[in-house]
Design a protein that fits this description.
By secondary structure, the chain is α+β, with helices and mostly antiparallel strands. The chain contains ten helices and 37 strands.
Length: 672
């Protein structure tokens, strides 16, 4: 055979072997069985460069770590879902980066404008079978967040997450084992931590602070944070399945799993807007009717009688209160009583057992107002009395610039068509509703609450959602939700130090309906008043103190001159600063109005303290008249009154705030 023919034959043989191999490799690459490229670890930094998040896949396992200002905030931690279908070993298939540098104007809040700046990394993961899962990361100056997003692979069920926050072992954390439990005054060592409702706030050994939370829960169960056997913080929640053929009800993405980071706990409070930035914005034109303002409840103030309610409207109008809220009882009992429950209540309330009106009111109907004696839950010695015309009260309130809001139990919401029910309330002219005992935890509960907010907005009703539900920043999407409980409010009779933990924990999740009660036992008047400022809510609901206005101002359990501060205090702010903070001890906050005045609230815990504060937050070229209320040196029984001083100050001055045990201070800086 000629030499040239041998050469041609070798070429044919080589090509006959190589071409099928190339085709086979291309098939596997396109199917995602192994990655199309060799990827190095991906790094994304916050806009200011202080937070650095690193993502990688090691041995088929997605992992991340975070450094904050040179220190390890989160050590190498695992990511992933335990789901059906199950994912095998994951490898990086594709990445995408984006950034944001903008600001938005809230309809209500602690700032006139909120910055929204972040660097983002989106990663597409594929396993050996070609199944896809996306993870989205965002790194802000205020913290970082990530969530799992469905790829081309439909997910039918999620049993749990592999998500970890592997924080340093020497941190101190402030957990709470029930939404209305009491926080620890001094925190607990991480080695003793077991479980908490979010957020989980803590301090690193160098004084820096963090808070681990969730945001933007849609069609997904809500979590609790637990410590795993390997020592990492992980989420636990109800197993959830989705109808994968229904685009609206199938799994789309998890809530954001997020961590705020700050130089100290005061910086966390100043950055409370972080959770809002993890939620989509609303069309501000749709919600222009939403008006924040203080609210007063009849609960612990008076029964539901015409004369008292009209008087309460007058008090509200005279003292800068925008809404009067009528609590349980106005439509009857919390739910339909059985015969046995009727007999139980009669046994526990013998003085009212012969009242001819109460039995009819155990068949409640939230489409109309009840009349007569209303039992509370059968096991309690408690009732109220209803004697009002709701339309008459609403019209009287409007004549005084005061809106009327009504409570409704979640059982009633589920027993009626809420669209029709809310249409009735809109026709009455109501301003808002307080849904109570709202179910919380499952994906269905999550969706029910979002639908509640949506239907309420349709009928121009603002909401104050009560009991276990924890906000997730969705108030940015539904700003008609102006208050949420989901924490140990004052009705839980917690010790006063609890009030100095809340701003750094529950308060970071969103506005908190603490339901402060004026002149509450074992707290000074200044301590109570300060909570209207140090715990932010666009519509604080005050649960007692209205009757005190009828007493002599020299009585220990009544307003003195500090009533001036209470009446002047609004709910809309353009700037907020935390001047001093120590979780479990105290917080001193100042907020600015659009008119350029500043209001100060200082909440102190169980130990006396004097704060020495520079006034550098004031405008440098303006003189201010400072009205300052501090704790009286002596208490009278369980009450402690105030001492008022007035002086002229500038930004170069400093002031002292002497605060008693369980005390505080409030102040107003008036531009001159």
């Amino acid at each position: 055979m000629k030499k040239g023919n041998w050469r041609d034959l070798r070429k044919v043989c080589v090509l006959s072997v190589i071409l099928p191999l190339v085709q086979l490799v291309l098939f596997f690459m396109n199917s995602g069985i192994f990655p199309t490229a060799s990827w190095a670890a991906e790094i994304v930094k916050s806009p200011n460069g202080k937070i650095e998040l690193k993502f990688d896949c090691e041995g088929g396992v997605p992992v991340y770590s975070v450094r904050y200002d040179g220190m390890t905030a989160v050590a190498k931690s695992i990511l992933g879902l335990v789901s059906e279908p199950a994912f095998g070993k994951m490898n990086l298939s594709d990445t995408k980066r984006e950034s944001a540098d903008s600001a938005w104007k809230p309809l209500w809040g602690e700032y006139a404008q909120i910055p929204e700046k972040y660097e983002a990394l989106h990663v597409l993961l594929k396993d050996e079978q070609g199944q896809e899962l996306n993870i989205q990361f965002r790194v802000y100056d205020e913290g970082f967040a990530f969530r799992y997003v469905r790829g081309a692979t439909p997910i039918q069920s999620i049993f749990s997450e592999k998500t970890e926050f592997r924080i340093p072992e020497d941190v101190v954390v402030f957990p709470i084992d029930g939404t209305e439990a009491t926080f620890p005054e001094d925190g607990v060592k991480f080695e003793d931590f077991k479980m908490t409702y979010p957020p989980l706030t803590g301090k690193f050994s160098d004084g820096k602070a963090f808070s681990i939370m969730e945001a933007c829960a849609v069609n997904y169960p809500r979590l609790r944070w637990v410590k795993s056997g390997s020592g990492a913080v992980q989420p636990v929640f109800q197993k959830t399945s989705w109808e994968t053929e229904d685009a609206e009800n199938c799994f789309s993405e998890t809530p954001w799993r997020a961590m705020m980071l700050g130089e100290n706990e005061g910086e966390l409070v100043e950055n409370e807007y972080f959770i809002f930035n993890l939620n989509p914005s609303a069309d501000p034109q749709t919600f222009q009717w939403v008006k924040p303002g203080k609210t007063i409840s009849n609960e612990m103030n008076c029964q539901i009688r015409r004369k008292d309610l009209f008087s309460m409207v007058d008090f509200a109008a005279e003292n800068g209160i925008k809404y009067v809220q009528i609590d349980w009882g106005w439509y009857g009992t919390e739910y339909v009583y059985s015969d046995e429950e009727c007999e139980e209540w009669a046994k526990n309330n013998p003085e009212h057992a012969d009242d001819p009106t109460w039995r009819a009111n155990t068949k409640p109907d939230p489409r109309k107002v009840a009349n007569g004696r209303i039992p509370y839950f059968p096991r309690f010695h408690a009732s109220t009395y209803v004697d009002m015309d709701i339309r008459e009260l609403v019209e009287y309130g409007k004549s005084k610039g005061v809106g009327i809001c009504l409570y409704i139990n979640d059982r009633m919401l589920k027993a009626y068509d809420i669209d029709e029910l809310f249409a009735i309330y809109e026709s009455w002219g109501l301003a808002g509703l307080k849904p109570g005992f709202v179910a919380y935890g499952s994906a269905k509960d999550t969706n029910d609450i979002r639908r509640l907010a949506e239907i309420a907005a349709k009928h121009h009703l603002w909401l104050c959602i009560h009991d276990a539900y924890l906000p997730d920043g969705s108030m940015r999407t539904f700003p008609n939700v102006m208050n949420v409980e989901g924490g140990g409010g004052q009705e839980g009779n917690h010790p006063a130090f609890h009030d100095t933990v809340l701003p750094f924990t529950r308060g970071l999740a969103g506005p908190f309906d603490f339901t402060p009660a004026m002149f509450f036992h074992d707290r000074s008047n200044c301590h109570q008043l300060s909570l209207l400022l140090t715990l932010y809510a666009p519509s604080h609901v005050i649960r007692s103190g209205w009757r005190i206005r009828e007493k002599d101002s020299q009585e220990p359990d009544s307003f003195g001159s500090e009533k001036e501060w209470f009446a002047a205090l609004g709910s809309e702010w353009t700037d907020t600063k935390v001047l001093e903070a120590e979780i479990g001890r105290r917080i001193v906050t100042v907020r600015e109005t659009k008119e350029g005045e500043w209001f100060l609230g200082a909440t102190n815990g169980s130990r006396p303290w004097t704060s020495k504060l520079p006034l550098s937050f004031l405008d440098s070229d303006v003189e201010y008249e400072l009205h300052l209320w501090t704790d009286s040196p002596e208490a009278k029984g369980t009450y402690r009154g105030t001492v008022k001083t007035v002086q002229m100050v500038r930004s170069t001055d400093s002031i002292e705030l002497p605060m008693a045990e369980n005390g505080g201070a409030v102040a107003r800086f008036i531009r001159k």
